[in-house]
Amino acid sequence: MALKQISSNKCFGGLQKVFEHDSVELNCRMKFAVYLPPKAETEKCPALYWLSGLTCTEQNFISKSGYHQAASEHGLVVIAPDTSPRGCNIKGEDESWDFGTGAGFYVDATEDLWKTNYRMYSYVTEELPQLINANFPVDPQRMSVFGHSMGGHGALICALKNPGKYKSVSAFAPICNPVLCPWGKKAFSGYLGTDQSKWKAYDATYLVKSYPGSQLDILIDQGKDDQFLLDGQLLPDNFIAACTEKKIPVVFRLQEGYDHSYYFIATFITDHIRHHAKYLNA
């Protein structure tokens, strides 16, 4: 599959690149960012996937989070895809910020309008890793995932639905129980229809209750002053309770004074890179 390089910038000894390609899963042109640390010049490195939140593209994380120095030091290739298909000319895809363009929610849609293009779950778990493995110096056996908000939801469900595929998972302010929150109800009803059993297949709080897999240590950072936490969009307590019941280790850090923004992410990103490096470089 042909990749077209859009940009390349030297950063902390490595290269921050952006590529474009024709996606089979999404039936459109897609962009993704990839950071190649200095170590990638001489050997295969672990791959760490970042999933961004509502309204984001591949650019938000690479320009705002400040992750490059830690990724360079730990020798991690970091991949950041876009958050939805683009320009599919689907009726209603650009009508609201929390559904359609920029809001793929990391599900495979089943509703007629959306099912041809909105297959972000299969894109980030299958097509994109295959593309990365074939074109970049990564070790396919060492892969982890993390994300923010909608992307934190994405990271958690990717790890929980694929036991053993990812070495580690972490999230910033994830949407933990989308079946019960306004964002989730809107997205899931639009992409998946009215059958709520389909919704539960993409809800981390439900998935963790039936998680059959090997050990999975989860790290979550949540800003205490996050408006979306206060508005009942994120519901981390439900997820923590499910993890506790299932005896799945989760480190949940409620960070005093922090909100939902990339200033919050930038503050703690090095901790998350270290969390993943511990498993990826073991």
TrEMBL record:
SUPFAM superfamilies: alpha/beta-Hydrolases (SSF53474). One of its GO terms (molecular function) is carboxylic ester hydrolase activity. Its EC number is 3.1.2.12. It catalyses: S-formylglutathione + H2O = formate + glutathione + H(+). The active site is at S149, D226, H260. It is found in: Cytoplasm. Keywords: Cytoplasm, Hydrolase, Serine esterase. It is an enzyme of class 3 (hydrolase). One of its GO terms (cellular component) is cytosol. It comes from the Eukaryota. One of its GO terms (biological process) is formaldehyde catabolic process. It holds the Pfam family Esterase. NCBIfam families: fghA_ester_D. Serine hydrolase involved in the detoxification of formaldehyde. This is S-formylglutathione hydrolase. The gene is ESD.
